[in-house]
Fold these 4 entries.
Entry 1:
Amino acid sequence: MIRAHSVESVRTAEAAAMAKLPEGELMSRAAHGLAEVAAARLTDVEGTTVVGLVGAGNNGGDTLYAIAQLAESGFASAVVLVPSAGRSGVHAAGLQAAESAGAVVHVAADDAQDAVEATAEADLVLDGIVGIGGQPGLRPEAARLVDAIDDDAWVIAVDLASGLDPAGEAGEDDAVWADETVTFGTPKPVHLLPAGEAATGRLTVVDIGIEVDDVPATVERLTWDDVARMWPVPDRGDDKYSRGVLGVVAGSEAYPGAAVLCSTAAAEAGVGMLRYVGTPTPVALVHQAVPEAVVGQGRVQAWVVGPGLDTEADTAEARAQLAAAREALASDLPAIVDAGGLALVEGRRAAPTVLTPHAGELARLLTRLESAPAGTDDRTQGGSGAAAGTPGAGGPLSGPADAGTEVTAADVKADPLRHARRLAALTGATVLLKGATTLVVTEGEPVRSQADAPPWLATAGAGDVLSGVIGSLLAAGLSPHDAASLGALVHGVSADRASGGGPLRALAVAHGIRPTVRDLLARGRSAPA
Ligand SMILES: NC(=O)C1=CN([C@@H]2O[C@H](COP(=O)(O)OP(=O)(O)OC[C@H]3O[C@@H](n4cnc5c(N)ncnc54)[C@H](OP(=O)(O)O)[C@@H]3O)[C@@H](O)[C@H]2O)[C@@H](O)CC1
Ligand SMILES: Nc1ncnc2c1ncn2[C@@H]1O[C@H](COP(=O)(O)OP(=O)(O)O)[C@@H](O)[C@H]1O
Ligand SMILES: [K+]
C-alpha cells in the first residue's frame, strides 16, 4: 500500500528526525537522492545541461545542493533564482555549494532574459520553486520561467510540482507539469489525488529517514501486493454459503446486458453463490452466460442493486424487480448501489453500503438528496421499513453549507474529492467515484485512490463489471471501504491486461477478473515473507 501523509504530519515527522540528526542532514539526504535520479535521467535522455529553478524555501535549498552534486559530476549546470530578492532570497549555504561546484547563477529579477534563456536551453529542469510550504498557483515571475521550459526537456519536480496544492484538494491549472516527481520521506496527498496526479508524473520516494509508519495516512493507494493480503481466500472448512452468497438485482428489458456483465464479473471474482433477480430477457441471458447463477430471491449475504435497472419500466415483471431492489436497499444487508439503483437511494442505510456513481450520477444524487425538504422523514429505502434512516444521525438530509444548489457533472469533475466527501457525509455510505483516478471515500478513513486502468476502460458496461466484483467482496465479508478499493484495483488491472495497449470491451474485463486475481494471489505467495 502506498500511503500519503499530510503536510502537517510530514512536518512533525521531520522535526522528530531532525532532533536526532546533525544540522542539514535531512536536506543533504534529500538533495543526494534527487541528484541521483537527475543524473540517471540525464543519461536516459542523453542530455548534458541541467537547470534548477530555485525558490525562497527549503525546496530551493534541496535543488541547490542537488545542482552542486550534478555540477561536480560534470554536467553543465545552472540555477535560476526566482525570488525578487535574488541571492539574499534563497538558501544561502545551498547557493554557495552550487556556485563553488561551478554552477552558473542567474538572478531572474536582475537578468530576466538570461534566466529565461538558461531555462529554455536545459535538457533537464529541476523544479525547486516551491514545495510543501507553497500556496497553490504560480506567481508571475515563476510562471514566466515555467512557460520557457522546452517541450522536449525532462522536468523533475522537487517534492511536488510547484503550483499544486500539497493537500491535493484544490485543482490548479497554473502549475508546473512534471514528467517525474522526486519526493522525500513519504508521498504527499497531491501525488495520489486527481487534482495533482497528472502534473506529478512518475513518482519516486527518497528515503531520508523520517518515520511515518505509525502515522495515519491521509490518502492511500492499494498496490498489487495488497491483493494477496486482502482477497477472501476460502479454506478447507468453507462451503458456498459460508463464502458468501451475492444477490444481484440488475438488468432490464431496456438494458439486459448489464445483468450479464455484472453477474459474469461476480462469478469470475469467485463468489460462493450468485442469486439473480430480473425480468425475462436478462434472466434468459444470465442463464446462458452464467450457468452458475440461481434465478430468484433467497438468502444472501450482500446485494448488488442497480446496474442496468430501469426505474421507469412499468410491466408486472419490472415492478416485481423494482420491489426486490427496494427490499434489498431496505434490508440490513451490505449493498453496493450503482446506476439505476442510485435513483432509489433516499438517504442513509443502516447497513454497510457502497455507492458507485460516475460524475454525472454523483451530481444528480447530491442535487436530489440536498434539495429534499428538511423534515421529510421517509428515509427508508423504498419505505418498506426494515432499515429506517438513522434519526438524529446529524440530520442525514440537512447536508453541508452549500445544500440546495444544483450540482453539475462539471462541478464534480472540477473538484471530485470534495463532492465525493459531500455524498459520503450525507449518506454515511462509502462513495466510490469513478474516473481515470477512482476515489473511495468513507468518513473516518483515509481516502483510497486507485489509478490502475487505462483510458480504454471508459467504455459502456465497464461499471457493471465493477459492481459485480465489489458485490462478491461484500458478500465475502469485506468492509465497504476495502471491497470498493480492492474491487477498483482488480477491475483496473484486469482492464490493463485485457487492453494490452489496445481497445477494450467490458466483457473482456469481466473475463479477465479470474486470471487477474489468480496471478495477483500467486504473486503474494511467491513474495518473500
Ligand atoms: N523540513 C525538512 O526537514 C525538510 C524539507 N525539505 C524540503 O523543504 C520543503 C519545504 O520547505 P519550506 O517549508 O521552506 O517551504 P517551500 O515549499 O520551499 O517554500 C515556501 C516559500 O516559497 C514562497 N512561496 C509560497 N508560495 C509560492 C508560490 N505559489 N510561488 C512562488 N513562491 C511561493 C514563500 O516565500 P515568500 O516568497 O512568500 O517569502 C514561502 O516561504 C519541502 O517541500 C522539501 O523540498 C527537504 O529538504 C527534506 C527535509
Ligand atoms: N479515463 C479513464 N481512465 C481509466 N478508467 C476510466 C476512465 N474513465 C472511466 N473509467 C472507468 O471506467 C468505468 C466506467 O464505468 P461507468 O461510467 O459506470 O460505465 P457503465 O455505466 O457504462 O458501466 C469505471 O470503472 C471508471 O472508473
Ligand atoms: K517543487
Entry 2:
Amino acid sequence: MVDMANPVIQVEGLRCSYGDFEAVRGVDFEVARGELFGLLGTNGAGKTTTMEAVEGLRATTGGTIRVLGADPLADRRAIRPKVGIMLQDSGFPGDLTVGEMVAFWRSTSSRASDAAEAVEALDLVHRVDVRIKQLSGGERRRLDLLLATLGRPEVLFLDEPTTGLDPESRQRVWEVVRGLLDGGTTIVLTTHYLEEAESLAHRIAIMSEGRIAVSGRVADVLARQPARISFDVPAGFDVCALPILAGDVVHHPAGRVEVRTGELQRDLGDLLDWARRDGRALTGLRANHASLEDVFHAVRTDEKAMSR
Ligand SMILES: Nc1ncnc2c1ncn2[C@@H]1O[C@H](COP(=O)(O)OP(=O)(O)OP(=O)(O)O)[C@@H](O)[C@H]1O
C-alpha cells in the first residue's frame, strides 16, 4: 500500500532554465516510499532537466524539492549515500574493466550489496574482464544500472534505463527493478517505452513543454481516455445500420468500423446484440481499454493545438 502521507520525494512549483529558455515551468509531484513513479513525455519535454534537479545535479530557478526530507542540492552530502543515480550517459572511465569498476564503486559505499549477485542478475559475468569502452551499448546500460544500485539506495533515479537494450535484456532489467521495489526502494524512472511504464509504474506523469499534462495511477490515467471497439465491415456498409451507441463511430475507408467510447461494456453489449439479431459476423472484433500510447497521443494533439 502506497503511503502518500509521508512522501519520500516532494517537488513543488519546480522551474529550471537554460539562459533565457525555461525548460521546466512549474512542476509538482510527490513520490511515496516504495513507489515507482514514471516520468514520460516527448523529446525535449523537460524530463531529464526535472530529474537532474531532483537528483541535486542542477540548480533550479524556482520551487522547492525535498528528497528524504532534505534539499538535494544544498544537503547533497547528507543524502548522497542513500540515493542511486543512473544518468542517460554516465561517462565512466573506459579503460577500467567491468570488474575493476564494480570493485572500485563497491569500495566507495558502506552499504554495498553483493556485487557477484548483481553482476549475475544483469548478465555481465562473462564481461567482468572486458574494458568498459569495449562493452556494447546494452551492456553499458546494464553496468550503469548495476553501479547505481550497488549501494542499496533508498531512492533510485533511472533516466531511460533500457534505451538500446534488446527485449531479453530489457526484461532482465525489469526483473531487477521489480526486485528493488519488492525490497522497498523508491524509484523515479524516465522512459520512452510506454509498455515499460505500464508494466512497472504505480503512478506516472506525462510532461509536455516543461509542464505535467497528465498524472495519476496508470489505471486512472487510462480510464480517462475512451476505449476502442473495432470490427470489419463489408464494402458499401452503411454506419446508419448500427445501433445507437454512447461512443463516437468512425468508419475507416479500409472497411473497418471503430467506436471510441467511455462506455465499453454497454456499447460492446449493444453491438453483440445487434450482430446476433441480424445474423452478422463481427470479423476481426477487438475491444480494448485505452493504452498509454492513446494518452500520449492525446497529449501531443493538445500540444499541437496550443502551438497553433
Ligand atoms: N544544456 C542545455 N542548454 C540549452 N537548452 C537545453 C540544454 N539541455 C536541455 N535543453 C533544452 O531543454 C528542454 C528540455 O530538455 P530535457 O533534456 O530536459 O528534455 P527530455 O524530456 O529529457 O528530452 P529527451 O526525451 O529527448 O531526453 C529541451 O528543449 C532542450 O532542448
Entry 3:
Amino acid sequence: MSAAPLLEPRDRTGDVASLFRLHAPDRRLATDGIHARLPAGPAATLGQRVATFFSTPRSGPDLLVGALPFDPHADDALYQPARVSAPGTGTLPASLGTLVAAAELPSAGAYADAVARCVAALQAAPNGADALRKVVLARGLRIEGSAPIDPHVLAVKLGSDASVTTYVVPLPVKADEAPAWLVGATPELLVSRRGRTVVSHPLAGSARRTGDAAEDRRRTDALLASGKDLHEHRLVVEAILDGLAPLCSRLQAPPRPSLQATATMLHLATRIIGTLKDPDVSSATLAGVLHPTPAVCGTPRLPALQAIRDLEPFDRGFYAGAVGWTDASGDGDWYVAIRCARVQGNAMHLFAGAGIVADSQPALEVDETAAKFMALRNAIGIDDVRAV
Ligand SMILES: C=C(O[C@@H]1C=C(C(=O)O)C=C[C@H]1O)C(=O)O
C-alpha cells in the first residue's frame, strides 16, 4: 500500500484508537491518549459536570474533548486527553481499501413513507405554541470494507473540502467490541465561546450543489426565496435565540439568512453573536442548553424527539449530536455532528437527515438526504448509494 506524507500523528504505541481530531477552517486540534474520563451524563448536567471536573486539582491538559449523543437524555462521551499533539508527525495509508455500499436503513422508499407520515402528522397538528411544527428525519447507509477502516484516512479525504470542519472522535464501546469513532465533515457550528463572546451559526434549508455556476446561482436564489426553507430555518434561529437570550446581555442575528456552501451542498445560514452576562457560563453549559437544535431534531423539542423515535428505524447514537472541546476557562467549540459516519472494524454507517415541515414533499427529502451523503460518498469513492 502506498503511503501519503505527513498527515496525522500516531500515538506512541502507533494506536489510532484514542486519537481525536477537530480541524476547523480557522483552528486545528489533535490529541492522543485518554488521561481521565468525564463522568457521563445527559446534556442538562454537562456544564455542572465539566465545572466539577476542572475544579478538582489534576495533572494533564486543561482540556476535555468528545461527543454528545443526539438524544439529550443519553450519556455523553467526553474525556481529558493525555496530550495535545502536533499534527504531521506520522504517515497514513493513502487508501481506504475496497468498500461497497451494503445496505440502506431505511430504504429510500421506506424513508419517503416515513416523511409522508410525518407530513400528515404536521398538517394535522393543532395551531398553537405547543404544536409540532418541524421534525428532522434521517436515514442511514451501511458501507463495508475488505479490511478495518482507518478513521484518520477518511478524515483526511473529507478535509479536501476546506469549507467544513472535519472530525474524528473516539466513541465508547463495550469491552468485547472493536474501537469505534464518529468521523465527519460538518459545516455547522452549534456554539463557540471565547471569553464572554458566544457565536452560533445554524444551518437549515438546503439544496444540492451541482458544480455548474449558473445552476447553483439559480438554486441559491430559489433557496433564499423559498417560504418553506425560510420557515424551516427560522425555527432553528428562534430556538437558539430563545436558548441564549436569558444568558446574554447582547444578542444579535441578521433578520434574513445568508447562503453557506460546502463542496456538495447549499444551505441557509445565520450567524448569531451574543455577549454573556456571566463569564462563568462555559461552552459546555451552552452546548448543553442549545443541543439538540431544530436543525437536527425539530420544534418543539420533546414532541419532535418522540416523532423521531417513532419514525426512524435505528438509534442515532452520536449522529446529529455535537463534537468539540472545552477548556478550564470555559472557552470551547462545539459543532453539530452531521455529514458523518460511525466507523467500527470493517464497517461504517453513514447518516443524513432533512428537516420536515407541513409542506415538505417526500421525494424532495429523499433527494436532499441523498445529496447530504455526497460528502462522505465522494471521500470514500462510492458513487451510487444504491449500488450494492
Ligand atoms: C440533519 C442534517 O443536516 C441538517 C439539516 C438541514 C436541513 O434540513 O436543511 C441543513 C443542515 C443541517 O442542520 C444532516 O446533514 O444529516
Entry 4:
Amino acid sequence: MTTAAPAPKSSATPPAWRVLLSYVRPHRWALIAGAVLALATGATGLALPLLAQRLIEDLSADRAIGGALAVMTALMVANAVLGGFGSYVLHRTAESVVLTARRALTSYLLRLRVTAVDRSEPGDLLARVTSDTTLLRGMTTNSLIGLATGGLTLLGTLVMMAIVDLVLLGVTVAVVGLMAVVIGVIAPRINRASKSAQEAVGAMGTAVERVLGSLRTVKASGAEAREEAVVHDAAQRAWQASIRAAKWQAIAGNLSGVALQAAFIIVLGVGGARVATGAIEVGALVAFLLYVFYLMSPISEVVAAITGYQVGAAAITRIQEVRALPAEPVAAPAGPGPAAPAAVAFEAVRFRYSEDLPEIHHGVTFSVPPRGMTAFVGPSGAGKTTVFSLIERFYDPTGGRVTVDGRDVADWDLGELRAAIGYVEQDAPVLSGSLRQNLLLGAPDADEAAVAEVLRTTRLEGLVARLPDGLETLVGHRGTKLSGGERQRIAIARALLRRPRLLLLDEATSQLDAVNEAALRDTVADAARETTVLVVAHRLSTVTSADRIVVMDAGRVQAVGTHAELVARDSLYAELAATQFLATSS
Ligand SMILES: Nc1ncnc2c1ncn2[C@@H]1O[C@H](COP(=O)(O)OP(=O)(O)OP(=O)(O)O)[C@@H](O)[C@H]1O
C-alpha cells in the first residue's frame, strides 16, 4: 500500500455548497424551522432600538412610558425564548446533517473497489469519516444558517438605518464594504489552511493505524521512538495548519469588530454634526447608533458563515475525494440460489494490478469442472492468489474472461457471485468481536446445529470448550487472542458455514500440527464431494489428495494433471514436490 491519498479531485466534482445541500435536503424542514426561529429572534431584537427611540421621545415630551416599557420587556423575553429554541433546532439539524454525511460516506467506503482501497490508507479514510464529517456541523450552523439569518438581519438592519438617516447609512456601508473586501482576500487562505490541517489529521490517522496494526512488530523491532516521531510530526503539522486557519479566522472575526467600532466613531462624528445643523434629531442619532451596534451580530454571523464555509468546503473536498474513488455496484441481497457445485474457467486471462505495475497474468487458461478439489501450485509470486481475487471479482482482468458456471463473472450480480463463494484468505483474517460473530460473518442466519457441525469438522470444539465464554469470547483486534492455526480453522469454518458452491482456500504457508492438518484435509476432502474446491496449496498432503493440480509459473499455467502424472512429466512440479512441499510437510 502506498502513502498516496485517494484519487485527486476530479474536474466533475460538484462545488462544496451543492454537496452540502445534498446532505441538508433530508432535513430541510427542520432547517427552515430553525431559520424562521432565528429570523423571528432577529426581528424582535431589531424592533428594540425603534422602541428605545420612542421611549426617549416620550420621556423628553413628558409622556407616559409604561406601554413602551411593557412592549420592550415582552420583546426581550420573546427574543430570549425564540433565540434559545431556535439555537437548539439548528444544532440538532446540523448534527443530523453530519449523520447523513457519515452514513453516506461509510456506505460508500464499504462498496469501494479493492483496487481503490489498495491505493488508500485506512487511517486516512477513517479520519475522513470521523473528523472531516464533523466539520460539516459548523458549516451547516455557521454557513447555511448564518448566511441566511445573518444576511437577512443585516438587510433588515440596513433598511431600518435607511429609514432613520440615509447619509449615516452611506457612511456605515462604506466602512463595512471595505471590511468585506479584506475578508474576500482572507477566505481562500482559511480554506487552504483548513485542508492542510485535515490532511495532517489524516496522516496522523495513517501513522497511528500503522503502529497499532503491527504493534508487536514495532516493539520487537525497537521502533517505538521512530514511529512516535512520525505520529508526532503529523500531529505537529495538523497543529500548525490549524493555528494558521485560526489566525486567519481570528483576523476576519476581529475585522468585523474593528470595522463596526470605526463605523460607530465616524457615525458619531458625522451624526453629531448633522444634529448640530438640525438635519436630524438626537433620538434619530441614538437609534442609528444602536443599529450600528445591532449590525455587530449579523455581520459576525456573515463573517463566520464565510470563514466557516471555507473550513467545511475543505472537509467536503476530502469527502468528495473518497466518493470519486471507484466503487462496486450495490449488491442485491442474494437469495438462496442453486446449491450445485460451480464450474470455473479462465480463458486467456491477462491481468495487472494497476497501469503502472507489471502484468501478473500473461494469458492464464484452465478449467475446473463442478465438484472435486483442484490445487494450484507454483513458486511464490507466480500469481496463484491473484486467480482467487479475479474469481471473487475484487479486480477485473485486462484481457480474457473469468467464468463461473460458464458465465463471465462481470455479468454476474456481484452479491450473487460472492454468495456462491466461500473464501479463506492466506492470512486467515479474524475480525475483532466474538468468535460467534466471526463464524456468522458470512452466514448470519446459520442455526446452532450448523455451527456445531462446522465446529466439529474444523476441530474447533476443544477451543470453544476451553474459552471462558465459549462462542461469545472476544477474540481481540484481528484475533490476536488466538493462535495462527486457530485463526486459520476459524476462517475455514466461516467459509464452510456459508455452504458455498465454490470454496477458495488459500492455504497458509505456516504449518498446522499433524493432527489438525489431517483433520482439515478430511474436512476439505469432504467439502470437495459437494462443492468445487480450489486451493492454493503449500503442503504435499494437499496436492496428493487433489483431483487435479494446476502448476503456475510467472503468470502462466505450465501444466495440469494429477500428482503422479506431473511428477513424471513436469520438471518444475517435480522440483517443487521434492523441495518445497516435502520441506514443509514432514
Ligand atoms: N494488491 C496488489 N497490488 C499490486 N501487486 C500485487 C498485489 N497483490 C499481489 N501483487 C503482486 O502480484 C504478484 C502475484 O501475487 P500472488 O499473490 O498472486 O502470488 P502467489 O503465487 O499467490 O504467491 P505466494 O505463493 O507467495 O502467495 C506478486 O508479484 C505480487 O507482488
